[in-house]
Design brief:
4-stranded parallel β-sheet; Rossmann fold; alpha/beta; 325 residues; 11 helices
């Protein structure tokens, strides 16, 4: 009589991302959820609720115009689902552990309280919390972890877990960028005089001044890429600022203008974005491309977000496998 097969250990991998409206009707509640987050708006209630209502209402027309340009919704969920599938396949290629990937969005479906139920039904032995933000900030990774932990505790999801806070210099993450930049260099019509702009999502300066490590980690990523590329002409810059606060500098649009004035070509790298969404598809591809044309930039080549690049997925797999070591 054959002995029963030993049950594989089950590990749930939770991929955190921002989320985005899945229809034009979802824009207003999505924006409210964003601005109501205390990590984004550090006001006490009821004032935070009131201010979030006002700001989200005012932003709807602008946001609607943006999302109408890319099909009436954010593509971030579909991109994240593709990354989750690729990572799950990579993790399950070998070994005696069964991995299942789940998605938890911060400001739109699937919310963490929805994903917690799915994970509970899966009954894992262990859980890995893996942000699709390579750089730690309280406004991204921090708030996602806080929100997840609150809902996991409420649901009694008490199995052992590990949280990966950042991976700014993970080898495969760096390699994915290097590979895409090298491919882009071959497309330059004026390769003798180009600048690489590493464009990351900006943050209000007061958040960085309070000790948030985001900008420092973005710099570490760009240094690691530069060491492999060996191209000295590069700038780390920041996009997507809004509101009256001072944001971290230099600004990406200012750097595009400066490159144009100097007669340079640009390779622009969305270094902190791992999937396509409005900041890449509208801001970089449409608005900044037009700005580059107006200001005399010779070539303007935008690197794709690394998405399901095999090197990046391999890096996430290694982080996952190593999390409990």
């Amino acid at each position: 009589m054959s002995e029963p097969l030993e049950r594989k250990e089950k590990v749930a991998v939770i991929l955190f991302n921002l989320g985005g409206p899945d229809s034009l009707k979802a824009i207003k509640p999505f924006l409210f959820n964003l601005f109501y987050d205390p990590a984004i708006m550090s006001l006490k209630n009821p004032l935070r609720w009131i201010v979030a209502k006002i700001i989200s209402g005012k932003r709807v027309p602008i946001a609607r115009e943006i999302y109408q340009k890319i099909g009436g919704k954010s593509p971030i969920l579909e991109h994240t689902q593709a990354q989750a599938k690729a990572l799950e396949n990579k993790l399950n290629e070998e070994g005696d552990t069964e991995y299942a990937c789940f998605i938890s969005m911060r400001y739109w479906h699937p919310f963490s309280h929805e994903t917690v139920k799915q994970v509970g039904n899966y009954k894992p032995d262990r859980i890995i919390l893996l942000p699709l933000y390579p750089h730690y900030s309280i406004t991204t990774v921090g708030t996602s972890l806080i929100d997840w932990n609150k809902n996991a505790q409420s649901a009694g999801l008490d199995m052992p877990f590990r949280a990966i806070r950042d991976y700014a210099q993970a080898e495969g993450y760096i390699e994915a960028h290097v590979s895409l930049i090298e491919q882009a260099r071959e497309k330059l019509e004026h390769p003798e005089n180009y600048r690489i702009l590493y464009s990351a999502h900006g943050l209000p300066k007061k958040i960085i001044d309070a000790g948030d490590p985001y900008c420092e980690q973005v710099e570490l990523t760009c240094q690691a890429i530069q060491e492999k590329l060996g191209h000295p002409d590069h700038v780390v810059c920041f996009q997507s600022r809004s509101g009256p606060l001072q944001w971290v500098e230099p600004y990406t649009d200012d750097e595009i203008k400066r490159a144009g004035e100097q007669g340079k070509s640009i390779i622009i790298v969305p270094v902190a974005f791992v999937s396509e969404h409005s900041e890449t598809l509208v801001e970089l591809d449409m608005e900044y491309r037009e700005l580059a044309k107006e200001t005399g930039v010779k070539d303007y080549i935008r690197i794709a977000a690394i998405g399901c690049h095999d090197s990046y997925i391999s890096a996430l797999a290694k982080l996952t496998r190593d999390a409990f070591k």
